[in-house]
Amino acid sequence: MESMAILNPRTGKSDFDLPVFDHDGVCAALLPLRNNQKTWWEAGLAYRIDSLLLLADALAENRQAIIDALVNDTGRVSESALEVDVTIGTIRRWCAQAPDLLDAQGKKKAEIPFIEIQQSYLPYSLVGVISPWNFPLLLSLVDAIPALLAGSAVIIKPSEVTSRFVQPLQTTLNEVPALSAVLALVTGAGSTGQAVIQQVDSLCFTGSVATGRKLAEVCAGRFIPAFLELGGKDPAIVCADGDIELAAKALCWGSMVNAGQSCMSLERVYVHQSVANKFIAKLVESVQKLSHNYPDIKRGEIGPIISEKQVQIVKSQLQDAKDKGAKIMCGGEVVNLGGGQYCQPTVLTNLTEDMLVVKEETFSAILPVITVESDEQAVSMANDSEYGLSAAVFSQDLEHAYSIANQLEAGAISINDASLTALIHEAEKQSFKYSGLGGSRMGEESIRRFIRKKAFIRNTGVPSPWWFD
Ligand code: NAD
């Protein structure tokens, strides 16, 4: 099998050879899945729950080995531990919820009284998952878990940038043979992903808008559903009556956590002019306290930029902002520390709407702050975006906060807090505009993405009046 050299984000050196599955390799990995899926489905939900709970236990036992691989993938420690723990928690949560959510056996009378309807469903046989580099483990399993519970087999193609975790995950998976029969991991870049899409019956994709668009076209051609979770440029609005200290603290966290490498990172703030100076001072004070996790990986909040490609995007957005007259309140550079590329925690002001850092997804520890004259102007500027993932509003008048939230074109709005969708998974939401397509993975409803509804329609014994005499 061919392989590709992968860079370590902390050293900038390649230290990992990633096996690349070609088309034939993907087909070979898929073949047993299709055969085994029938048994997996017919074994029933209780069996599938037991198998997934065994996986949760095996993940807990192999926790450290997986964390170690994720640390090498991403150059960060606490987030890597959190990824494993959240994944285990997600498995247990879905296992508890699935019996109620997948109970579709109810009978009901049709409008025509002698007809009875019984609802049933059949899962998609084979679900493909293609995931990005910012949360390698979690975003590979977050859709796979409900799909498996629903009765599908799953093939996962994680990002080539961060696939070191696949080895210890596969070892863990092998401890639960019932599950390794219906869940496969294949590694490689875009061409491996293309081979996956050609074979599966449904696709869950998390990644950039540009790739999402390409994949959606292929899925449309194949008439298979594509659930796309894409990029964002999440706005926050700080109203004149917002709690300024709270807003500064929340937005410092919401924009800088994971070095800004989260889809629901707050990437622009619109602050009312009457509180702008105070807010900016508090924000800068908080951001300046943050430091890089270098040289000691266990200290500091800001890790390296994980993807080499992203380094270029961040650098060019910063340069564009500087060239067009942005004021750097703190940070402002991508620095090389021991071979890794780290973005200094940055706050920008004096911005114009044509700057890349205001318009395009940055995915880094950079927060542009724009002063506005009114909440109407803030809403209009926040909505002037091709993205609509999530947003935040700060106002101490709750009625006002909800009224602003109502006007924002995004699927989830945190009120008097930031990026709550990262933590709260039970809220039903969707991604608006180019931030996604199809039902979202958030909320209980999301498990139904993996089933096809069926109806058994029975005549209870009355000769139908519409039959020919
Ligand atoms: P990306 O689009 O470059 O890659 C994502 C995945 O697609 C990778 O596994 C990659 O190998 C694969 N891929 C690339 N080209 C392909 C092709 N032609 N055919 C099939 N597969 C292909 O995205 P990325 O840079 O890895 O991730 C960052 C992006 O992900 C950001 O835009 C971020 O906002 C987004 N994201 C969104 C969410 C969400 O829930 N909405 C969550 C996390 C990340």
Question: What does this molecule look like?
Answer:
The chain is of the alpha/beta class and about 475 residues long. It contains 16 helices and 22 strands. It has helices spanning about 25-40, 45-60, 65-75, 80-100, 140, 145-150, 165-175, 175-180, 190-200, 210-220, 245-255, 275-290, 310-325, 355-360, 375-385, 400-405; strands at about 5, 15-20, 105-110, 115-125, 125-130, 155, 185, 200-205, 225-230, 235-240, 265-270, 325-330, 335, 340-345, 345-350, 365-370, 385-390, 390-395, 410-415, 430-435, 435, 450-460. The strands form 6 sheets. Strands 12-15-16-11-10-18-19 form a 7-stranded mixed sheet, sandwiched between helices. Strand 3 (about 105-110) and strand 4 form a beta hairpin. Helix 2 (about 45-60) packs antiparallel against helix 6 (about 145-150) and helix 4 packs parallel to helix 6 (about 145-150). The model has no long low-confidence stretch (mean pLDDT about 95). Bound molecules: nicotinamide-adenine-dinucleotide. Nicotinamide-adenine-dinucleotide binds next to helix 9 and helix 10.
